[in-house]
Amino acid sequence: MCIVKASSISSPSQSEVMANLSVKKVEVCRVAPKPGSPENQSLPLTFFDLLWLRFQPVERLFFYQTSSTDSVLSKLKTSLSLTLQHFLPLAGNLTWPQDSLKPVLSYVQGDAVSLTVAESDVDFDHLINSIFLPAQDFSPLVPQLDVTDERAAAMALQITVYPNHGFSIGTTTHHAILDGKTWTSFVKAWAHICKYEEAQALPSSLVPFYDRRVVKDPSGLGELYSRQHQNKDGRTDNRSLSIASISKDRKAPDREDSIRGTFEFTRAFIQTLRAHVTSKMASDSSLHLSTFSLVSAYTWVCMVKAEEIKGEKTALIIGADSRSRLDPPIPATYFGNCIVGRVAVAETKGLLGEDGLVVAVSAITEAVRSLEKGLLDGAENWVSKFLDFSLYGRTYSIAGSHRFEVYDTDFGWRRPKRVEVISIDKTGAISLSDSKNGGGGVEVGLVLKKQYAEAFDALFASLVLH
């Protein structure tokens, strides 16, 4: 029996948390693409986009430290305008015209991104270094996305300045318009232009590819999904773009009674997990022992134990970027959504048992391997009934990816000091990113009720692997 240590956090105390974060809104302005940009651009949604039509917007937050904050706003605004020349649709809006089978993302001259500018006198060092914080503390640092039944903005931004200490950039994006890979490309393009003050010279890896014809749909999934969306709520022509409420079956935590925690998997710890699973499965070398599988599996086991799940089975929803998996593959810089979901299912008693990590890795391996057998198997049901949540004692999901390397996003003020997926407080998802400490580590973000967060912390710090 061995006890494995990982970077973790101490139990939260009242002195370590900052409720009621004070933020003063200075202005709300609109930033348009630099004059001289194309006058308009229109993109029909693909079936990959339609999966997310009424999903919760994705909120993310970057913190940067600098003692000289006077020039921050002007540099960020100027570079944003220049960046939008390459990402025109993000200044546009989503609509669903009566004469269109599918919703359409359109940019027309005059469209712009809503940018909120704010200030805060909060203890910046505490904000970027505290591993446990009340779930609601970051909410004032991300903007609301303008969404109505008839129109939805693609994106909203917020810059909050902490005078003489640093600033944060909050982004809120419509999930039907872009996935995490495309969002990462936009933010890194913005950072590149801001840092190097080069409007035209984006690296090829950051130049978006817009031709929607590369996404083949021989089975008519786009039309099917559009019809299914229109038939929601007992209607036959429901073209509403309003965001759907979170299903009670997803069990997103109550933010008023929850805290946000960040946990780091070091490269050494990940290797320890890999060695442990390998020793248990000497006769089975087919398990998928990637960093993603091991981090997700360990987190899954800790969550089930911390929350004391009683149901017979639990599930973990994972997403896979399918740009390289499609036949034929599409460019890595394709703008939009290209995610395929899979569900790993395991018996709860197996996850709670002495071989829980192996059980979790086996379930994730089976889910990942199913991508090779049929990428779009069952896709006709992904909008109408992706998963029957009532079958599981608890359903978890993963948001983000360590492969996005968000901590490499340098606007000219070096690496961010902290990056968070804020919207997991609404969806209940588990966020993944690379580690701010580098070295091949991974950060996991959670929002849990206090007692579950404390239990997770204890398990994570010294989970006994038999």
Structure description:
26% of the residues lie in helices and 24% in strands. It folds into two domains: 2-9 and 246-465, Chloramphenicol Acetyltransferase, CATH 3.30.559.10; 14-234, Chloramphenicol Acetyltransferase (2-Layer Sandwich), CATH 3.30.559. It is built from eleven helices and 19 strands. By secondary structure, it is α+β, with helices and mostly antiparallel strands. It has a seven-stranded mixed sheet. The chain has a six-stranded mixed sheet with strand order 2-7-10-11-4-16.
Could you give a short description of this structure?
Keywords: Acyltransferase, Transferase. With 466 residues, the chain is an alpha+beta fold.
Top keywords for this entry?
466 residues; alpha+beta; Chloramphenicol Acetyltransferase; 2 domains; 7-stranded mixed sheet; 6-stranded mixed sheet; disordered N terminus; acyltransferase; EC 2.3.1.115
What is the secondary structure topology, with strand pairs?
Blueprint: E1 2-3, E2 24-31, E3 40-44, H1 47-50, E4 58-65, H2 72-84, E5 93-95, E6 104-108, E7 113-119, H3 124-129, E8 132-134, E9 151-153, E10 155-162, E11 166-173, H4 180-196, H5 221-230, E12 258-265, H6 267-280, H7 291-306, E13 313-321, E14 339-347, H8 348-352, H9 356-373, E15 394-400, E16 418-421, H10 424-427, E17 430-434, E18 442-449, H11 450-461, E19 464-465
Parallel strand pairs: 7-10, 13-15, 15-17
Antiparallel strand pairs: 1-19, 2-7, 3-6, 4-11, 4-16, 5-6, 5-9, 8-12, 10-11, 12-18, 13-14, 17-18
Helix pairs in contact: 2-4, 7-9, 7-11
EC number: 2.3.1.115
GO molecular function, one term: isoflavone-7-O-beta-glucoside 6''-O-malonyltransferase activity
InterPro entries: CAT-like_dom_sf, Plant_metabolite_acyltrans
